[in-house]
Amino acid sequence: xxxxxxxxxxxxxxxxxxxxxxxxxxxxxxxxxxxxxxxxxxxxxxxxxxxxxxxxxxxxxxxxxxxxxxxxxxxxxxxxxxxxxxxxxxxxxxxxxxxxxxxxxxxxxxxxxxxxxxxxxxxxxxxxxxxxxxxxxxxxxxxxxxxxxxxxxxxxxxxxxxxxxxxxxxxxxxxxxxxxxxxxxxxxxxxxxxxxxxxxxxxxxxxxxxxxxxxxxxxxxxxxxxxxxxxxxxxxxxxxxxxxxxxxxxxx
Length: 252
Prior knowledge:
Blueprint: H1 13-27, E1 32-36, H2 46-49, H3 56-67, H4 80-89, E2 96-100, H5 103-111, E3 121-126, H6 128-136, E4 142-143, H7 147-153, E5 167-171, H8 177-182, E6 184-189, E7 205-210, H9 215-224, H10 229-232, H11 236-244
Parallel strand pairs: 4-5
Antiparallel strand pairs: 1-3, 2-6, 3-7, 5-6
Helix pairs in contact: 5-9
């Protein structure tokens, strides 16, 4: 993993944009980004953090079975990529990590967790083509629903599917407004390995530091740019939470 000059800290949106531009320069392509509220967290999936890979198929099939009455636009039962995307965006432990094309969105997620306010955060930049070259021998982004990835996805839903071990970057079909708003994509992890511990992480991964003391300032700047809770989670629950927290001036 590439760690830039440790003296450089992202403490403003201006420095955030500089880090994004520097990542683009180092990679030669548009990076994807991920924000961590605690710089000590690893790039492990929620499934592996919870040590639930042995019950992955049970979690997934229970989610699919119970979703129809709760969600109006469920994917087709055989659309495994669509279901995996929906599972991740609604918090079910699964074998994917979220990434975003927007460095602003990644920074929001690095700073917004109040419970981690006292910890330095991190911003990761990912060279998607290089990761897929190393893991799939394909020097480009691939579709989550495509042939290159489907056999990494199948064990989530099929008990007798072969267990393939690549970690691949994949672009999903947008099956939910959250995916659209967050400009999301995934790394799909066929094995329980954190991406930052990959032996060739230095070829495709950059880690930037965000000081704890800068989180609130960054959130305020992002809010001015329209990157806030209700824009990234475009539903009534998050709109209500944002409106409830708004301070209004009484003008008579």
